[in-house]
Structure formats: structure tokens, C-alpha cells
Recover the amino acids of this structure.
């Protein structure tokens, strides 16, 4: 959802608030109050987004390695989910990340269940931070954060400054909202409306709708805490609102799963099941949860609205934490049952027909550069798989007499290779556009190098497809026209060399999945070895020609051209490996 839609929703909400009573208190300047509320809320939401952005940039490069280190242990997954969400300050972002990772086949959906439960715990950190009334230090944080962002030379320090700047803006927005709401403390219609939210189902509905509109449970929980800080909201009204926020936040993952694989859709389904089930369980226990939270939270000696303003913000934050921790503790032992339930709702279908002209892994919803780069690697790895299939399909007509005899320009082999080559063109174009869009976001120097390296690798991969389609495919007809087979030794050498080059493409595919310098260096060393092997085979072929072996003489031109084209592919593989090594150093 774009920012304009969010602001429209906020304007609508506060317009409704201002019209909630038939009697307008003339002592309240409603125009100024609404403008102040909207201005403060805009800064508050922007501050959360800015803080999250800074944290993601700072830690984004490590998110993949943290998630990749997951074992099947559900408890470890729970803590990892809580940690990752605590760092990036958004459970929605974590869930969207999981959808993309499953879509990219970097993990399966069963692994994500513990992480989803942990993500709900991690998001409670934001509420706990907001409950600390740090508004007096807001401008100090803004100043320090801006200074770090402006003057620091290190990317890591700049990202930390961006997070601190967002944190300061967040609290400054809270201060503006708090100051604007002060006149409402004595405005009876508004107080009565807040009391009406003690109906748990009404609060649940409002929390769900508003969170779905702004797509951030952390932001909505913060707004609830701001209301509580002004003594306008009792705990009995606050708890249903934050329960509703847990349902509303599911919409983000739902949107992210549209158009993805069935496995990725299961991640969003699991997120919805956990959150909705937890709310259904606790909505009937609100009175007991209220009593427990009051028991564990600090008490002040004030009375009336001052007492509410001092106690309720921390109570709401604690209720948010208690609820999510309790849901995780209850549901974690049953995670396998939930996994089976998800499979019932989204059953495994027969093997889906492979659609070439689609982007399988790239996700425009991902805003973390490090994660976007990982998805690009997965898409290029898929591109390598297509090239490996093309290269495997092209050789049989050259070395198998029966395959050659039935080959024609419109054969299944030719059409399949042409289709796959068009697919590589499609992937190269769209991957390049995606990388360009990434380059316009806040990248550090290493990420910039990675983006441009991946552009170069994608272009080299597309060139390999051109060699197979535009050069090797027409050569089959040329071979067919000479009515002669390669010599037995020639076929043997062709098979060996073709197999070696196919292995190079397979190595590229694997190297892109998990970037390692050892893999790239192996490709480069094999490139040199295979270049020498091609020279040896060329020499042996010429020796057969000199001995006037008829088969070698008649097929000489096609034989040498085919070997040269395979050598070109080997050269491209070496270039790709060099690019990987250069960006990895």
C-alpha cells in the first residue's frame, strides 16, 4: 500500500473522530487539532519506516546467513525469528522476507513456522520502546542521527545514524500527537467513544481494519500507546485494539504471496492461521489478561486520567508482549499440526508445467537491498539451469546418427532450444531492470559492486544462450548437409569436451546459489584446464586430417567450429568466475 493511501486512511479516521459528537466544544480548535494530529502521526509513521530502513541496511547483509543457519529445531527458529524482527523492527517485513525465501527455494515453508511465531515476539520490542516516554530526548536523537548520517564516512555508521534519526522523528511525532490530544481529555463525546472500545469485538474490528490500512502493527500499537499516554484509553480498550492489530498485519504477507509458488503461499497461510487462532483464543480471556498485566506492571500513586496516562502505556506494551509470547509457547509444540493443516488448506498438486517466461524469484515488495540481491542470484541461478538444459539438448544430433536424421529446422529440439533462448532473453532484460531499480535505493559500496557484477554476469549468461541458439543450432543443419559422421575418436573427444563445458554451467548455477570464492576459483581454474584440453583435441583432429582419414576430412569444418563454440562458452564461464572473484575480494 502506498503512502498516499495510508494518509487518506488517516485523514478519514480523524475526520470521523471530529464528527463523532453532535455537540462541538467551541473551546477546541478542531482544525488545528486535526492538522497537528495528522502532522504528528505522519512524522511518527515516517520515523518508524526510517528507523526500520536504517536497521535493515545495517543488518540486511547478515539476515540471509542468519536464516540460512537454521536447523529443523523449532526453538532455534523461534529465537531467530524474534531476533531478526527485533533488528529490522517489522514482523511484516520478516514474513514477506520468508515468502520470498521460500519462493526462491532457499528454505521450505515448514522451516518458517517457528520463525513466524518468533517474529510476532520480536515486533513487541517496538511497543516496549515506544512505551518509554523519551519525547524530551527526541530532538537530541534527531540531531545525533542526522550528524552521523551526514558526516560519517562508514556505511555502517550512516545506517546506524539513519536508524537513530528515525527513532528521534518517531518520538517527536509522538510529542506532537500528545500535545494535540490534550484538549480531548475533557471532551466528553470523545471520552465516551474511547469507553465504547471496551467492547472487545468492536476494538478487535477497529484494530484489524486500521492496521490493514497502514500495514504496520508496530505503528498501530504505537498509536494506541500514544492515546494511553494522554489518559484517553484504558487498558480494557487497548488490549482488543492490539489483538486486532495482529490480524490486520497478516494482509501484508497475503499481498506478498500473490503470484508466488504454492509453497510460498503456505507461509502466508501459516502466518494468518497463527495470528487469527491466537486472537480467537485470547479474545475471550481479555479480563484475565487485563488482571495479569496489571499485576506484573508498575503502579503509580496518581488518580484519574493522570493515573491512566502513567500506567496504561506500559501495561499495553506488556499485554502485547505477554500475548505474543503466550501464543508462541502454546503453538510452538503444535507447529507440525499447523503445518499439516496448511497442507490440507493448500494441498500439494501434481507437478506444475514449467512456465519459462516468468520471473520466479524476483519480488518488488522486498525493500532490503541484501535480500533483493539474494533473490537476483536465485533468478540468475535459474537462468543457468535453463542454459544447462539448452547445452545438453544441442549435442545429440551432432554425435547420434538417428537424432541427426530426424532433425529438421522445426523439430522439437530446435523449437525447445529457441523457446529457452527467448526465456533467457526475457530473464536478462527483467533481471537488469530489477538490478537498476535496486541501484537507486540506499546501497553501500559493496552492494553497489554486487549489483553491477550481477548485471555483467547476466549479460554473459544471455550471450551463452545466443551462442547455443544462433551459432550451434544452425550448425546442425550444416552437419546434416555433409552426409558424414565424425570419426569415433572425434565423437569421443566431443562427448568429453561437451561434458566438461556442461559442468562449468552447473558450477556457475551452484556458485550463484551460495556465493563462495572457492567455487568461482574452481570455475576459473577449470576454464584454463579446458582451454588446454580443447587445444589438445584440436591438434588430434588435425593429425587425423593429415592422415587423410575421410571422416575427419569431411567433418573438419563443422568439428572445429563446434569445438570453438564450446570453447567460447568456456570463456564466458571464466569471465563470470572472474566477476564473482572481483566482487568477493
Amino acid at each position: 500500500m502506498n503512502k498516499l493511501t495510508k494518509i487518506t486512511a488517516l485523514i478519514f479516521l480523524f475526520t470521523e473522530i471530529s464528527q463523532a459528537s453532535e455537540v462541538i466544544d467551541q473551546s477546541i480548535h478542531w482544525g488545528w487539532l486535526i492538522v497537528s494530529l495528522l502532522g504528528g502521526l505522519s512524522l511518527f509513521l515516517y520515523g518508524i519506516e526510517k528507523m526500520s530502513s536504517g536497521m535493515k541496511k545495517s543488518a540486511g547483509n547478515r539476515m540471509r546467513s542468519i536464516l540460512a543457519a537454521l536447523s529443523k529445531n523449532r526453538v532455534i527458529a523461534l529465537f531467530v525469528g524474534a531476533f531478526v524482527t527485533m533488528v529490522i523492527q517489522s514482523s511484516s517485513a520478516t514474513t514477506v522476507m520468508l515468502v520470498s525465501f521460500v519462493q526462491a527455494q532457499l528454505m521450505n515453508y515448514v522451516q518458517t513456522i517457528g520463525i513466524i511465531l518468533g517474529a510476532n515476539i520480536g515486533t513487541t520490542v517496538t511497543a516496549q520502546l515506544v512505551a518509554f516516554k523519551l519525547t524530551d530526548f527526541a530532538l537530541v536523537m534527531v540531531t545525533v542521527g542526522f550528524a552521523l548520517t551526514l558526516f560519517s564516512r562508514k556505511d555502517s555508521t550512516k545506517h546506524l545514524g539513519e536508524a537513530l534519526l528515525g527513532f528521534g522523528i518517531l518520538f517527536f511525532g509522538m510529542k506532537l500527537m500528545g500535545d494535540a490530544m490534550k484538549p480531548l481529555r475533557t471532551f466528553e463525546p470523545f471520552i465516551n467513544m474511547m469507553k465504547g472500545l471496551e467492547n472487545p469485538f468492536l476494538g478487535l474490528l477497529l484494530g484489524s481494519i486500521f492496521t490493514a490500512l497502514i500495514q504496520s502493527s508496530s505503528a498501530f500499537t504505537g498509536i494506541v500507546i500514544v492515546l494511553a499516554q494522554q489518559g484517553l484509553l484504558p487498558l480494557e480498550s487497548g488490549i482488543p485494539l492490539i489483538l486486532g492489530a495482529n490480524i490486520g498485519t497478516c494482509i501484508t504477507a497475503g499481498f506478498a504471496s500473490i503470484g508466488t509458488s504454492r509453497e510460498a503461499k503456505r507461509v502466508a497461510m501459516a502466518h494468518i492461521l497463527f495470528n487469527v487462532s491466537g486472537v480467537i483464543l485470547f479474545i475471550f480471556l481479555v479480563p484475565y489478561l487485563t488482571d495479569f498485566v496489571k499485576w506484573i506492571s508498575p503502579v503509580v500513586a496518581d488518580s484519574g486520567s493522570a493515573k491512566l496516562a502513567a500506567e496504561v502505556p506500559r501495561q499495553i506494551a506488556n499485554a502485547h508482549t505477554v500475548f505474543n509470547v503466550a501464543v508462541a509457547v502454546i503453538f510452538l509444540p503444535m507447529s507440525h499440526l499447523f503445518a499439516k493443516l496448511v497442507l490440507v488448506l493448500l494441498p500439494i498438486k501434481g507437478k506444475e508445467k514449467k512456465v519459462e517466461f516468468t520471473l520466479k524469484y524476483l519480488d518488488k515488495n522486498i525493500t532490503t537491498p541484501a535480500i533483493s540481491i539474494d533473490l537476483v542470484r536465485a533468478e540468475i541461478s535459474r537462468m543457468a539451469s535453463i542454459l544447462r538444459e539448452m547445452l545438453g539438448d544441442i549435442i545429440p544430433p551432432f554425435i547420434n546418427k538417428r537424432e541427426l536424421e530426424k532433425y529438421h529446422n522445426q523439430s522439437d529440439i530446435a523449437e525447445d532450444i529457441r523457446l529457452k533462448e527467448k526465456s533467457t532473453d526475457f530473464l536478462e532484460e527483467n533481471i537488469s531492470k530489477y538490478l537498476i531499480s535496486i541501484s537507486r535505493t540506499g546501497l553501500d559500496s559493496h552492494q553497489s559492486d554486487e549489483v553491477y557484477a550481477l548485471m555483467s554476469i547476466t549479460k554473459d549468461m544471455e550471450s551463452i544462450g545466443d551462442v547455443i541458439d544462433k551459432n550451434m543450432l544452425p550448425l546442425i543443419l550444416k552437419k546434416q548437409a555433409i552426409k558424414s559422421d565424425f570419426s569415433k575418436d572425434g565423437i569421443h573427444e566431443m562427448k568429453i569436451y561437451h561434458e566438461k563445458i556442461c559442468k562449468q554451467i552447473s558450477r556457475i548455477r551452484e556458485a550463484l546459489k551460495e556465493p563462495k570464492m572457492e567455487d568461482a576459483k574452481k570455475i576459473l581454474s577449470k576454464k584454463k584446464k579446458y582451454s588446454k584440453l580443447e587445444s589438445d583435441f584440436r591438434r588430434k583432429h588435425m593429425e587425423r586430417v593429415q592422415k587423410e582419414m575421410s571422416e575427419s576430412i569431411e567433418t573438419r569444418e563443422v568439428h572445429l567450429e563446434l569445438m570453438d563454440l564450446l570453447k567460447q562458452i568456456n570463456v564466458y564461464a571464466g569471465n563470470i568466475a572472474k566477476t564473482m572473484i572481483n566482487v568477493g575480494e
